[in-house]
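so my prof wants the structure for this chain in the tokens format not the other one, which i didnt know existed until like an hour ago. anyway here's the sequence
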Amino acid sequence: MLAQHCIDCKMPLFKYEGKVICPACKREFRIDGKGYAVPIEKDGRVETVKDENKEITETKKDRKASEVKHDVVETSAKSVECLEYSKVKSISILRSKLFEVISRIESCESVESLHSLINLALKIIELIEKIERI
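here's what i got, hopefully its the right format
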């Protein structure tokens, strides 16, 4: 499982047999230089262009520059949504783990274990704060 998510269904992407795929949509992606998931085109065709709830397949040559620019903006917005979803999910998981550590602190009897658990709790808190600043 990868850190990137599908721009359509928001499911985590997986790398399988050298390909990056969405298990729900069955779409294939590539990871660009900035770490964003970008759908792979097949046979020079754009896979999905939405027009009033219809999917249209067309060649790149037929598209106007403004349409391409719109798709880039739309893809960027979806990437931001995926990043935001990943942040929320990560923070939720870390908070859950923090509560587990705190409950262990309450029942801890060893000074060494207490020291380790407090350090772990502090590192989790720092990580949550760093993710929130992204």
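also thought this was worth mentioning. Residues 44-61 have pLDDT under 50 and may be disordered.
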